[in-house]
Amino acid sequence: MIGCMPIEHRYADTDACARHLVDGLGPHLRVAAPLGLGKPHGLLNALYRLVAADPACSMRLYTALSLTRPQPAPGLERQFLGPFLERHFGADAVDPQYALDQARDALPANVEVHEFYLQSGALLRSASAQRSYISQNYTHVARDLAQQDINLLVQLVARREGPDGVHYSLSCNPDLTLDLLRQVQQSGRPRPLCVAVVHPELPYLGGDAEVAEAYFDVELRPATSPPLFALPRAPVGLAEYALGLHASALVKDGGCLQIGIGALSDALVKALLLRQHDNIQWRRALVALDPAGATHALAARLGGLAPFGAGLYGASEMVMDGFMHLQRGGILKRRSWDDLALERAAAEGRLDPATPGGHYLRGAFFLGSRELYAWLDATEAADPDAIDMCAVSNVNQLYGDHQPLAALQRRGARFFNTCMMATLLGAAVSDTLEEGAVVSGVGGQYNFVAMAHELADGRSVLLLRATRENRGGIESNIRWNYGQTTIPRHLRDIVVTEYGVADLRGKSDGECVEAMLSIADARFLDALCAQAKAHGKLAADFVVPPAWRRHRPEHLHEALAPFRHKGLLPAFPFGSDFTAVEQRLLPALAWLKSCSGNWRGRWRLLGAMVRPGDAADGEGEALARMGLDAPRRLADHLQRRLLQAALRRQS
């Protein structure tokens, strides 16, 4: 039974609450905590300290996406990031100590941490994290977790008092909590002790996310709370913009949208806004990228070139800043109702526009900037029906009693996800390196790809940079084959790189190989063709079309530079958390880091130091920001010279 008695135990002291939990539950804790923003770091740290100090106790934590502030390396990186991190996250920010210890393989022997999704790339070198990782589809986590005899669930919540008493909002994380407790109840297992940790800044969202006071057994309301974790906004490059422009032509007016997070998603959102508000320039940019008309042909069949009239409906496991910008831009506005008759009437154009209610965005968890959190709070106050935060089982899959309704709500769906690599035969690599090291996790990607194939007019779109840099130089992200895959080739659908769109659905292996070659970087075409021919998947007399030979970064820059100069493709499309001086430093520091990774780069760096050229604009301010305006030590003089070379090269 889920909650039936009012809360008896209320605490303001985190350590006292942790001691109460350990005393009441016994020496062996099996803890579940939400992914991302919903983890109460203070309480988890207090429990961790108690267990670590007592070898007779143990703690097994099940969670995902443990958010920690970046740990900058000594030198220029620390000089740049140190002041920024304190300013952005706050001097009183709290990291989960177990995550910091796990990253350096220093967890005590009586503590285990199992995550099904890792902070991207953060734990590649942690042997304990790699061994303890659980590979699961997002929608299977609650099912599997219910079998682990969880005895404690802890979660950040928002709190509200009204005429009918106290209510809590699961706010940022109804995703697994609702499903887990339902699964536990259905299995007949004991319900875990549930602790509500109140955070005053967490947006209070109603609907499925709102629960009665009796849902929880213990309330912790600390006297002070650290700021909510807010993601810094990252810059967007021309390659990302090219990718976003191609992808934005695949979106169908009146359809449904799912997007993730990061520079590729930001580029897609910015491109959709350009399509809506500056359609002529958007079309010109698309023509510059697509002179042969391949993307335009797909747009006519699958998406569109006109601004959005009916608008889009959002159904995404993660609610992030992009949805806020799309709603403000008048694109995210198609409402849906959790009533089959109303939804059918809406789909057929028979619904009275004055019909109240309906939501235009459904999500399972949210994470983003402080601006996003404020927008969610304001939207709930002004339009309580607009955003529905609910269980992940209601977002990431069609199965169950809600299938006919969900399929209708998600008509015209375009599910955009990112991947690291793709093969010529259409498989995608999104979470794991060839030797088995986990970069992040499957998360909900497989869910959305499978759902796209089940919906009559749904499409899965995987976004992929054509190349990447490593210590050996540039590598292609389109491979003949790879030792790990996240999405199998039989679920291949649409893949987009900065060089175009490959529609793979229903294609033969030979056609699939040609389509993937058409969006690859030209520097790797001959090698990829040779591999495909050697394995009998490409005709021996196949010749690479001359147009594909132009798929190089310099031609991409040539096509889009005029639009960047007009201010249409800014480095920070939605504002920046960095100061103007820091924004000038970012590309210079990135160049220094890339040069240090291989001998060719180090030679370039040496040449730039020997012949640095004239001083760059704002160079003095940049040096002062890094504490190098008046160097004293030899090491400081060297760092100053390196930074000057990088700044002058970038200018």
What attributes does this structure have?
alpha/beta; nine-stranded mixed beta sheet; 23 helices; 651 residues; globular; eight-stranded mixed beta sheet; 22 strands
What's this entry about, in short?
This protein is α/β, with parallel strands linked by helices and 651 residues long. Strands 1, 2, 3, 4, 5, 6, 7, 8 and 9 form a nine-stranded mixed beta sheet that branches. Strands 13-12-11-10-14-17-21-22 form an eight-stranded mixed beta sheet, sandwiched between helices.
Give a verbal description of the structure.
This protein has 651 residues and is an alpha/beta fold. It has 23 helices and 22 strands. Strands 1, 2, 3, 4, 5, 6, 7, 8 and 9 form a 9-stranded mixed sheet that branches. A hairpin with a 2-residue loop joins strand 21 and strand 22. The termini are far apart.
Tally of separate helices: 23
* Helix content range: 25-40%
- How many strands in all? 22
Compute the average pLDDT: 95
Q: What is the subunit organization of this protein?
A: single chain
Structural class call reads alpha/beta
Please tell me what the overall shape is.
globular
Q: Give the termini distance in whole angstroms.
A: 65 Å
As a percent range, the share of strand residues is 15-25%
**Biggest sheet features:** 9 strands, mixed
Q: State the low-pLDDT regions, or none.
A: none
Rg (C-alpha, Å): 26 Å
